[in-house]
Amino acid sequence: MKTVIFKMEPFSCPTCAEVIERVLKKQEGVKVVKVQFFSNKVKVSYNEDFMTSSQIEEVLVKLGYSIVDKKVAS
Q1: What is the CATH number of the domain that holds 29?
Q2: pTM, whole model, 2 decimals?
Q3: How many CB atoms sit inside 10 A of residue 8's CB?
Q4: Number of domains in the chain
């Protein structure tokens, strides 16, 4: 399992964090999603056999959010 942390543009409201969490949790291979509203970070643990960090990034962009930085950890 791998973990990726995305630093996002500031969220406009707490609902944004809820939407991101709900959508990412539905993606195949995603195990844990933690959205930190006040620090604008999204931490995702995923099974790399089913999903890549780039695919997770694509989901976030399709939802309309901008990513400032990405850090992949093992």
Answers
A1: 3.30.70.100
A2: 0.90
A3: 21
A4: 1
